[in-house]
Design goal:
By secondary structure, the protein is mostly beta strands. It has no helices and 10 strands.
């Protein structure tokens, strides 16, 4: 059973983020995966490069970069510059394994 095309039935912990420049682009962290939708949640695709089993605690987008977003997990921050298709470690893996990042904020400098 799916709630929306490409998205499995969700557990109790989900994190949702919306792109400021493109409100139809949504990011969703659930069940140790990260999903992206470009049509307002009608369909979803699993993102590549996000660490398997990582739980996204916070998702934010960069208002100045339409395809950039950041996901905070226990132990690090991940970022995308292609609308969530692929993810890379932004923190360089230098955070302690038990570091919990509970929120992210992007400020326009």
């Amino acid at each position: 059973m799916v709630l929306s095309r490409g998205l499995p039935v969700l557990g109790w912990q989900i994190t949702l983020g919306m792109s400021t420049p493109d409100p139809a682009r949504l990011y969703l962290g659930a069940q140790g995966k990260l999903y992206v939708s470009d049509d307002g949640g009608e369909t979803w695709q699993a993102s590549k490069g996000f660490p398997a089993g990582a739980i996204a605690r916070a998702l934010v987008t960069d208002p100045g970069e339409p395809l950039a977003a950041y996901a905070a997990t226990v132990g690090g921050v991940w970022w995308t510059d292609d609308g969530g298709r692929t993810w890379q470690s932004w923190s360089g893996g230098d955070l302690r394994a038990r570091t919990a990042i509970l929120g992210l904020l992007i400020l326009d400098a």
